[in-house]
Write a structure and sequence with these properties.
The complex is a heterodimer of chains A (about 230) and B (about 400).
Chain A (H helix, E strand, L loop, with lengths): L1 E14 L2 E14 L3 E5 L6 H8 L7 E6 L2 E2 L5 H10 L1 E4 L11 H11 L4 H14 L15 H13 L5 E5 L7 H16 L3 E5 L3 H4 L4 E6 L2 E7 L3
Parallel strand pairs in A: 3-8, 3-9, 6-7, 7-8
Antiparallel strand pairs in A: 1-2, 1-4, 4-5, 9-10
Helix pairs in contact in A: 3-4, 3-5, 4-5, 5-6
Chain B lengths: L1 H17 L1 H36 L6 E5 L9 H6 L7 H8 L5 E14 L2 E10 L3 H4 L4 E4 L4 H5 L4 E4 L1 H8 L8 E4 L2 E9 L4 E2 L3 E2 L3 E5 H7 L6 E6 L5 H16 L10 E3 L1 H44 L1 H9 L4 H35 L8 H27 L3 H6 L2
Parallel strand pairs in B: 3-10, 5-7
Antiparallel strand pairs in B: 1-11, 1-12, 2-3, 2-6, 2-11, 4-7, 5-10, 6-7, 8-9
C-alpha cells in the first residue's frame, strides 16, 4: 500500500531576489513498511524533502498525498494531527526538553493526542522499555548519555504508534557504538512493521535501508533497491 | 482540553520557577498594582466605618445656623465681622418657620472640671431643654434639664460618659457636685458613650449646662450656633426656608449678601466623598500605572521566553502541537506569572491590613481582592497575547534549526 505519494513537487525559495529550487520536480512513492534512506550532499534538498514528508513544510507546487489524502489543502490542526499520530520524528540533535524527565519527554505527544494521565504514563513507560531505558524513566536529558538521549527521542517518536519514523541524521551526533545501537533499534522497528525514512550522508548508515534515494540540486538522481 | 490545560499549567509553573529572580522582577509591577488597589480599598473601608460612626453623632436632619460656613475657607475676619447668633432667634425661628421642629441654641467654651482631687480640661456646652432632640445620643443615667431649670439659671449639668468614668468610676454620679471653673454644679444626668469623632476628637468628655446658667456665669456674648431640627424628607425645602427666615430676622434687603451660614451634615459627606475620590483616584492611578508598567514587563519577558524556547516550540510542533496548543501554553505562562504576582500582592496587602487594623479599624474588601486577582489575570492575558501569538505562528522548520 502506498503511504506517501509525491508528484512533481517543487519547493522554491526566493533568497535575495534569486530563485532557489530546493526541490525541483520530485516524484516519489513510499510504500508501507519500506526502509528508505535519503542521501545527498548538503544543499541537495534532503532536509527540505524530509520536512515535506513530515508535514512540517508545504510544497510550492505539486501534489503530496499522505495515505491518499492531499496534504497541501490541510489546515494547521490536521497537519498537527498527522505529525502527532502518523509520524515520529527523530532528530540529529535529539531535541528533548531539557527540564523534563525522560518519561515526561515521551509523554508530550500523548498530551497533544489528548490521552489520559494514567494511560499516558503506561504508554510512555512501555515505549522507554522497548528502547531499553526502563531504568532511566526519571532522568533528565543532561543525566543521560548521547545514545540514551537518542533512545528517549526514539521512544517519543514511537509512543503514539505512528506508521512512519522519520529520522534526520539520527547517528550524526553519536559515537559509533551508540550509533550502531540506534540503528539496531531502527532495524527492529522496521521488522515490526514500521516504515522508516532515514536522512543521512553516511554510507554505512544508509546500508541499513532497503532502498536508497540520492538527491542532487533538488532532483532525484538515483533510486535503488538493495538487499538488506 | 482539560489535559492540555493541566499540562500547560505544569509547564508554566516549571518555567516560572526555573527563572525565579527573573519572574519575581518581572512580576513586581503586578504585585505593586494589586497591593495598591487592595490597600486603597482597605483604607477606604476603614474610613467609611469611622465616618459612619462619626456621622451618626451629628444628626442628618439638623440645620446648623452660625456665622461660619464649614469647609468654605472663609477668612477669619470675615467671620468675625458677621453679627453673632442671639438667643432670641430661637423664638423668632420657631415663629416664622413652618419646618423647624425644634431649635436649640448652643454655646461652647473650654473649661476645667473637677471633682474632689480629680481634674479634667474639657469643653462645656450651654443649651436649652430641646438639645437632646438635636443630637443622636441618649441619656444613659438620670435626666436632662428642664425648661424651668434653664430659665431659672439652675446650676445643674449633664456630663459625658468619659467624665463620669474619670470622676466617679463605678459610683453613681447623679446628685454629686462637680466644679466647673470653680463653680459648683449638680450632676443630674450622664450621656451614653459615643466614641471618637472622626477617630480624633473624643466627645465623651463634655459637660452640658442650661444656657441660662452658662451665660450668667461664663459668657454672655460667646460663640453660638443654633441647631434646627427639620423633617428628614424635607431637607431642601427646609434649607431654603431657613435662609429666608434668617434673612428676615437679620433684616437683609434683596441683593445684600447673607451674613450668616447654614450648615448640614451633607457638607461633611461631600467633603468626605471628595477625600474618598482623592484616595481612590490616587490608588487607581498608581494601580493603573504599575499594571501598565508590569504588563509591559510581562510582555517583554514573554518575548524573551518565546525566543529562548524557539527550538522547544519547533519540537512541540513536530510532535503534534497545533498553533492553538502553543498559543495556550504561552498564554498560560503569562497568566500564571501574573496570577502568582497577584496572589503575592494580595498576601502582602493582607499582612499590611492586619497591621493597619491595629491603629485604624479596617478590613481588606473581599470583592476587591477577587477583582484584583482577575485584573492581574487579565493583564497576563493581554500582555501575553502578542508573544504567544508570535510563538504559535513560528515556522516549525526555522524553529527546529534555531540555535
Amino acid at each position: 500500500m502506498t503511504l506517501i505519494s509525491l508528484k512533481n513537487i517543487f519547493k522554491i525559495y526566493n533568497v535575495g531576489g534569486e530563485e532557489v529550487r530546493a526541490l525541483d520536480g520530485i516524484d516519489l512513492d513510499i510504500l508501507e513498511n519500506e526502509y528508505l534512506a535519503i542521501m545527498g550532499p548538503s544543499g541537495s534538498g534532503k532536509s527540505t524533502l524530509m520536512n515535506m514528508i513530515g508535514c512540517l513544510d508545504t510544497p510550492t507546487s505539486g501534489i503530496y498525498e499522505f495515505e491518499g489524502e492531499m496534504v497541501q489543502v490541510m489546515d494547521d490542526s490536521q497537519l498537527a494531527s498527522i505529525r502527532n499520530r502518523k509520524i515520529g520524528f527523530v532528530f540529529q540533535t535529539f531535541n528533548l526538553l531539557p527540564k523534563a524527565t525522560a518519561q515526561h519527554n515521551v509523554e508530550i505527544p500523548l498530551v497533544y493526542a489528548n490521552i489520559k494521565n494514567k494511560d499516558r504514563a503506561k504508554m510512555a513507560t512501555d515505549a522507554l522499555e522497548s528502547v531499553g531505558l526502563a531504568d532511566r524513566l526519571h532522568h533528565k536529558p543532561n543525566e543521560l548519555s548521547g545514545g540514551q538521549r537518542q533512545r528517549v527521542a526514539i521512544a517519543r517518536a514511537l509512543v503514539n504508534k505512528p506508521s512512519i519514523i522519520l529520522a534526520d541524521e539520527p547517528t550524526g551526533n553519536l559515537d559509533s557504538k551508540s550509533g550502531s545501537e540506534i540503528m539496531t533499534i531502527l532495524d527492529d522497528l522496521h521488522k515490526n512493521g514500521n516504515t522508516i525514512i532515514l536522512v543521512t550522508h553516511e554510507d554505512d548508515v544508509a546500508q541499513h535501508a532497503h532502498r536508497i534515494i540520492r538527491l542532487f540540486d533538488g532532483k532525484i538522481i538515483e533510486d535503488s533497491k538493495q538487499a538488506p | 482540553m482539560i489535559l492540555l490545560f493541566i499540562e500547560n499549567f505544569r509547564i508554566s509553573l516549571t518555567a516560572v520557577f526555573a527563572n525565579k529572580l527573573r519572574s519575581f522582577l518581572t512580576a513586581l509591577g503586578i504585585v505593586i498594582g494589586v497591593l495598591s488597589v487592595t490597600l486603597m480599598g482597605t483604607l477606604i473601608s476603614g474610613l467609611d466605618r469611622t465616618f459612619e460612626s462619626s456621622m451618626s453623632w451629628l444628626g442628618k436632619d439638623i440645620l446648623y445656623v452660625s456665622r461660619y460656613e464649614w469647609f468654605s475657607g472663609m477668612e477669619w475676619w470675615e467671620v468675625r465681622n458677621r453679627p453673632r447668633m442671639r438667643t432670641d432667634y430661637v423664638d423668632k425661628i420657631k415663629e416664622r418657620s413652618n419646618y423647624a421642629l425644634t431649635v436649640s441654641p448652643v454655646m461652647q467654651r473650654g473649661a476645667s472640671l473637677s471633682f474632689k482631687d480629680k481634674k479634667a480640661r474639657t469643653e462645656i456646652f450651654g443649651t436649652n431643654e430641646d438639645y437632646m432632640e438635636t443630637i443622636t445620643t441618649n441619656i444613659a443615667q438620670g435626666r436632662f434639664f428642664t425648661r424651668n431649670e434653664d430659665r431659672s439659671g439652675s446650676r445643674v449639668t449633664v456630663i459625658g460618659d468619659g467624665i463620669a468614668q474619670a470622676f466617679f468610676g463605678d459610683k453613681d454620679p447623679i446628685g454629686q457636685y462637680i466644679k466647673i471653673d470653680d463653680i459648683k454644679f449638680r450632676v443630674i444626668g450622664v450621656l451614653e458613650e459615643q466614641g471618637k469623632f472622626l477617630g480624633l476628637m473624643s466627645v465623651d468628655k463634655q459637660a452640658i449646662l442650661p444656657l441660662g446658667a452658662f451665660k450668667r456665669i461664663f459668657s454672655k456674648r460667646g460663640w453660638m450656633r443654633l441647631s434646627v431640627k427639620v423633617p428628614t424628607d424635607k431637607m431642601d425645602e427646609s434649607l431654603d426656608e431657613m435662609y429666608a427666615v434668617m434673612r428676615h430676622i437679620r433684616g437683609l434687603k434683596p441683593g445684600q449678601k447673607n451674613d450668616f451660614a447654614i450648615n448640614q451634615t451633607k457638607l461633611f459627606e461631600n467633603q468626605y466623598n471628595m477625600l474618598k475620590i482623592a484616595i481612590a483616584g490616587t490608588g487607581y492611578a498608581i494601580t493603573l500605572l504599575s499594571l501598565i508598567v508590569g504588563g509591559i514587563g510581562i510582555m517583554n519577558i514573554m518575548f524573551v521566553s518565546v525566543k529562548e524556547r524557539t527550538r522547544e516550540i519547533g519540537v512541540r510542533k513536530a510532535i503534534g502541537a497545533t498553533k492553538g496548543m502553543i498559543m495556550s501554553q504561552f498564554l498560560m505562562e503569562s497568566v500564571t506569572i501574573c496570577s502568582i504576582a497577584g496572589l503575592v500582592g494580595l498576601l502582602l496587602a493582607y499582612i499590611f491590613s492586619i497591621f493597619i487594623n491595629k491603629f485604624f479599624p479596617s478590613t481588606l474588601p473581599i470583592t476587591l481582592s477577587i477583582y484584583a486577582i482577575l485584573m492581574s489575570m487579565a493583564v497576563g492575558m493581554i500582555s501575553g497575547f502578542i508573544p504567544s501569538y508570535r510563538a504559535a505562528n513560528l515556522d516549525p522548520i526555522d524553529s527546529l534549526r534555531y540555535e
